[in-house]
Design goal:
about 400 residues, mainly alpha
Length: about 400
Amino acid sequence: MSSALKQTFYNYLRSAQRELRMIVYHPRYFILLTLGIVFSYVFFLTLMSEGQPQKLPIAVVDQDGSYLSRRLCHELAATQGVEVVAVYDNHLLARDAMQRQRIYAFLEIPKGTYNQVLSFRRPTITIYTNNAYLLGGSFSYKSLATMTKLASGAVQREVLRKKGYNEKTIAGLIQPIELDTHPIANPTVNYQPYILTTILPGIIGLMVLMLTIMQLHSWLSSPYERLLVSRGDLLACIWGQLLPYTVWYGMLGIIGNFVLFGFCHYTLYGSFLTLSVAFILFILALQSMGILLVGLIPEMHMSICIGAIYGTLSFTLSGFSYPASSMPGGMQVFGYIFPLRHYYLSYVNIALYDGTPQQILFHLAVLLLFMVASYVGILLINRRLHYEGRWEQFRTLHEIKLAKQGSAQ
């Protein structure tokens, strides 16, 4: 190893050691962010422990009071996804309950429904859902729509039986085409693998981004001691300071993935090691973007605000919550400036598709390419230090330190 390379290594090491001492002496932010990540995993893993929301409160407006309406209420009560918490005879009462957030949806059975069925007319049953709560409203609607379709099929079956049709003919008339569904990589239709495998790493990444911005602005307020430790090597000073957090939050992410794919048994067709490498590159990419934001925006509060907006937008534009292919063309291109987008695509190719090495390596290379942003940010920080006269002050302090060391010897 050449002397220059060895000196650079020691500069990184000294800067990292100093940051570790700062963490030991002032562990508040470090502990709070770690507890925040642990809380996020516990919260989301227990939020839908069954895989889907269960027993969502709904109501029935039964204005018919017939055998058919009572049978429909009984079938709804037996449904796993929803729970009938009230039966009203008035539409206004059910609407008031929905507005007071007591129920997510209600089914209205108008008067004369059973008589219309007996006279071979088509009664209308209405479903009302509160989609202000997207998850609760959507799942409630899905359960109610499924049950009403089954009820309609049951009525048709009874009518056709009365007409003398056999069961095979009845099945062909009610459902001419039978669907055979096979959910790929998620046979139980568990919503957790769709959501948690990306949103939890995204939360870690957002915390790392905000921590990076806050740390670097704090360092820029008084940079001399750290520059003295790294002997004026700005690159080693900044990345050495961030290195302990890269290691720690990278380990937390790998442990979190072990919980998801090991303890929770989420689908993982590819290599866990490759997914771990993707996560570490994801952390480095977000730290690089934090350095760039600090270099571009001198004011701490402004760069933190921009960082928060950037990190929050990544959840929407990464493509895991809303398909990127359905976004406008400009938004699809804009989504590629977010590291979470590339981590999500890496996860999909590694865990779900066991994709080709070319597909996986492309997204890993893009995550690595985000490191260029850190060098741009460091150049901007270096320019700011020159503009503010910080380097001249550092050189003066460095010469004083060397003179003291010489006199001591």
